[in-house]
Amino acid sequence: MATRDEDARRRLTRMPRQGAIVAVLALTGLASSFMFTLVVPIQAQLPELLGASRDDTAWVVTATLLAAAIFTPIAGRLGDMYGKRRIVLVLLVLLVIGSVIAALSTNLIGVIIGRALQGAVVGVVPLGIAILRDVLHTRSVNSAIALISATLGVGGALGLPISAFITEFADWHILFWLAAGLGALCFGLVLWIVPVSVLRSPGSFDFVGAAGLAVGLTGILVAVSRGSEWGWLAAPTLGFGLGGVALLLVWGWYELRIAEPLLDVRVAGRRPVLLTNLASIGMGFALFASNVVFPQILELPVETGAGLGLSLILASLVVMPAGLVMMVLSPVSGRLSNVIGPRALLIMGAIALVAAYAFVLIAGSQVWQILVSNLLIGVGIGFGFAAMPMLIMRSVPQNETGASNGLNALFRSLGTSTAAAVMGAVLAASSTVQNGVQIPSAAGFHLTYLLAGAGAVAALVLALFIPAHHAPEERHPSLPE
């Protein structure tokens, strides 16, 4: 067994060029985050396209976010057990299958099932980060991680104009065929370029823990997404919400008491890890709030008193530069982290997010003002998302990087999925009917900015309490410094 492990480790020194590995993993990250905004351009038309109510069609977006929250930590644990590349390939297969199901569907249920399977692919980002830690030289790790982390925002922002263009000039099903082709391309590149994972943590999979996590998260998200329709104090809302919270508490108690948990709650409870993960919720909330709110306010007619009257494609082009900022900042983030540390980088990112929402609250009535705010959000996410996996990985053993990054991605997904539900509920509650169409009010948009800004402030406060020092990282024994 020892000889086989040594042979496997030596194979890492004969792998493809590290730049190629980083490029392929970055492409898979872009593909996964593209799934978040894939249907944003057609969100308003979904009730008509699928013959369902607006509340029901909201699950075309929410199902993807929920699946991402559930599958990501599960994929991280499976990656640590069975090999990270292998699980990346499985997730890409699920993306292709889900995309084909949605592309062939003409009803709501089929599209929701397909979108849920698409959401599973988000697990490739934390797995990709863990692969980089396993195979890259120390001097290259931070910049590469910053690039992969940035794809969580970049793919969504850059994908918006692509989705808008297809929606404007072609059948909406082509969106899903595009996603299927992208998934197949990434599968082939990962199989060809990314080396087989050799650092594993053998054991049994915690099926009870996985089920508990899935049901608990689903309960909370159902309560948040349907609260405005059912009533926030109604029995179904309280039942799903409080039931989900109670189940997650029981889940945490159970995870502490079994030998091979889905997630090592003790590691997750370390102060740097816990505070980073909690800050991730605020960061994810602030990011996805802009993805939900800005396109709507840009596209609504000026006559409504709340909109800026842009076409679908122009609105997408206003949102897109945030993704370009994240991409440009990714190598800068890696170098900055080497100089000032990831904690300071996270603080800088949170400050940029607070500034973005403060600006749009004060001056958000013109297109250029939305653009400036969105650029600041790009800066904040570019720095913040780069810093979080670095903070996590310096605080956990190397054989737990997949599960630990999966847990961090779970917290980010909690932020994004909660933002989608909360922003939708706030705008729906503030809507008035004009010409038979529900139109959100300007006051509703201002409330969404306040809530998103509060998430950014929470992330900033939590970042300030993260310890500045850390223990030396374990390094892969076969790689030079």
TrEMBL record:
The keyword Transmembrane applies. It comes from the Bacteria. Residues 21-471 form the Major facilitator superfamily (MFS) profile domain. It holds the Pfam family MFS_1. Keywords: Membrane, Transmembrane, Transmembrane helix. It is a multi-pass membrane protein. This is MFS transporter. It comes from Microbacterium deminutum. Its main location: membrane. InterPro entries: MFS, MFS_dom, MFS_trans_sf. The chain crosses the membrane at residues 20-42, 57-75, 87-106, 144-166, 172-193, 205-224, 230-254, 274-294, 306-332, 344-364, 370-393, 414-433, 445-466. It is found in: Cell membrane.
